[in-house]
């Protein structure tokens, strides 16, 4: 009986895990409202890949020889654009903000700039500690604006 219950729980967990994963899709599979919003925001962009998430679509693209990633809601609303940058390109004020945050001892795994409808420029840090990860957004003055 214990084996059957364990098996049922394992199947439910596995199915939930598989269902909730992001998947790579062809450009032709992107909903028209999302694709149209992308082309309005970035008319000169050259798409490289699309990912369908649970509640958004992400596109990796080139614009003027710069690699960018943008996210759009299921309704086609632009959510964010990210450009990966090297940590040496992060301004001193932002690094000071990070180094004075509660995450200062976490390992930085990725840095980027981010633009959102609310903020023209944010600095994004992905940090890891003890198999946990966090996404941190700092404004240009070094204030932690958002953590996920």
Task: Summarize the structure in short.
With 148 residues, this protein is of the alpha+beta class.
Structure, described:
- There is one protein chain.
- By secondary structure, the protein is an alpha+beta fold.
- The chain has helices at 2-19, 32-41, 92-99, and strands at 23-25, 46-52, 56-63, 66-73, 78-84, 107-115, 122-129, 132-138, 144-147.
- The longest helix has 18 residues, at 2-19.
- 15% of the residues are buried.
Note the topology.
Blueprint: H1 2-19, E1 23-25, H2 32-41, E2 46-52, E3 56-63, E4 66-73, E5 78-84, H3 92-99, E6 107-115, E7 122-129, E8 132-138, E9 144-147
Antiparallel strand pairs: 1-2, 2-3, 3-4, 4-5, 5-6, 6-7, 7-8, 8-9
